[in-house]
From TrEMBL:
Keywords from the named record: Amino-acid transport, Signal, Transport
Domain (Leucine-binding protein) ranges: 23-355
An example Gene Ontology biological process: amino acid transport
Protein name: Branched chain amino acid ABC transporter substrate-binding protein
Domain of life: Bacteria
SUPFAM superfamilies listed in its UniProt record: Periplasmic binding protein-like I
UniProt record similarity statement: Belongs to the leucine-binding protein family.
One Pfam family cited in the UniProt record for this chain: Peripla_BP_6
Signal peptide: 1-20
Length: 383
């Protein structure tokens, strides 16, 4: 850990927390610019806050969403967390990667404030390093298992895994968990290949696939757009007609755009994701409602900010308190917390991650369809 981060942590211990009572403040130091901007939750959080405030707020208190750009810089995120805490924030969100979430949570700890990250799936956050953290979704082993189970049901046997260390366990280990479930189900991992984010030429990896000498049923990658779209096109051009399978990084409107001219491009694509995002889903309705209010929420990831706001509002209403430690305790002990993306979530048994179903999204005629939505019971345990 950098000295500057340690200094920031040390300084927070000297600060006496003071929390405003007239508003309920949520502080989001998140990527509003840069590569991770499409995955920040601030638009959905602001829209949900406006919806709740329009109905009179929570016990007469308005929800105020404090937002500033952290880009992809951990030190900026820590500084913004400190700023928001000093302004009375009772909950925080930050860059959704463990190397930022952990130090930000440590900064917030002396204030009794928790991090609520609505779309963080990294397993590092559940290792007991911190105890003031919630994620509104389930960790990557669950999404990997849901995708693998659907693959097996559809006759997938031989798979190639694509891994990268650049996205932490999300891109490095999620493919391995997928492969573990495939092999437990009688399939085979033919090869594990490395890649880097921002790849525009997949020919080295494709050459290795073609040299395997076996039919490839599926290629699994936990990555983001546009990388995934480029990979899909180059696989098809090379004559590899395997399923292209992934995780929540596929859940981007630009993936759907690939099928605009040729819907068949998406016929053999599916991914396990954070929440149902097909046409009839609550997410799509929420995005449309926000647009009617003049707020653009560009996709699932920004929409998940609504879950943060709903969980915070529910905890304040249930407890009758804006004390952050009370808010944390109320969320952690609840049997059921209503959110936007699914009917409800709970942390009572899991403590830091939400118990919820894992949807798998596929395509029919270029349009999203929900093809599976379950809580897997065969998730790998080595995390």
């Amino acid at each position: 850990m950098k000295k500057s981060i340690l200094a920031a942590l040390a300084c927070t211990a000297l600060v006496t927390p003071a929390f405003a009572q007239d508003t309920i403040k949520l502080g989001l130091g998140v990527p509003m610019t840069g590569d991770y901007a499409p995955y920040a939750e601030w638009q959905g959080a602001r829209c949900m806050a406006e919806m709740i405030n329009a109905e009179g707020g929570v016990d007469g208190k308005m929800i105020e969403v404090l937002v500033q750009d952290a880009a992809a810089d951990t030190q900026t995120a820590i500084s913004l967390a400190q700023k928001f805490l000093d302004e009375g924030a009772v909950m925080l969100g930050t860059i959704p990667f463990s190397d930022t979430m952990i130090p930000v949570a440590q900064v917030a700890q002396s204030y009794g404030v928790s991090i609520f990250q609505p779309q963080s799936t990294q397993v590092e956050m559940h290792a007991g390093i911190i105890d003031n953290f919630f994620t509104g979704v389930s960790p990557d082993p669950f999404t990997a298992t849901a995708a693998a189970n659907y693959a097996l049901e559809n006759g997938v046997k031989n798979v190639v895994l694509m891994t990268s260390d650049e996205g932490g366990s999300w891109s490095a280990k999620t493919p391995l968990w997928f492969g573990e479930v495939i092999e437990a189900g009688g399939g085979k991992v033919l090869s594990t290949l490395n890649f880097s984010f921002g790849t525009s030429d997949w020919s080295p990896q494709i050459a290795e696939m073609r040299a395997l000498g076996d039919d490839i049923d599926a290629v699994y990658i936990s990555s983001i757009m546009p990388d995934v779209g480029v990979l899909m096109r180059q696989l098809r051009s090379a004559g590899i007609d395997a399923w292209v399978v992934g995780s929540d990084g596929f859940d981007d409107p630009s993936l759907d755009a690939i099928g605009a001219d040729d819907p068949s491009m998406l016929d053999k694509v599916f991914f396990a994701t954070l929440a149902p995002s097909h046409a009839e889903s609550a997410v799509v309705k929420f995005i449309a409602d926000c647009k009617d209010m003049g707020i653009e929420v560009p996709g699932l990831f920004p929409a998940t900010g609504a879950d943060t706001v709903k969980a915070l509002a529910w905890a304040v209403e249930q407890s009758g308190s804006t004390d952050p430690a009370t808010i944390t305790q109320t969320i952690r002990e609840a049997d059921s917390i209503p959110v936007m993306t699914v009917d409800s979530i709970s942390f009572k048994e899991t403590k830091t991650y939400a118990q919820r179903t894992i949807p798998v999204i596929g395509f029919k005629d270029g349009k999203r369809v929900l093809i599976s939505n379950e809580i897997p019971d065969n998730t790998p345990t080595d995390w």
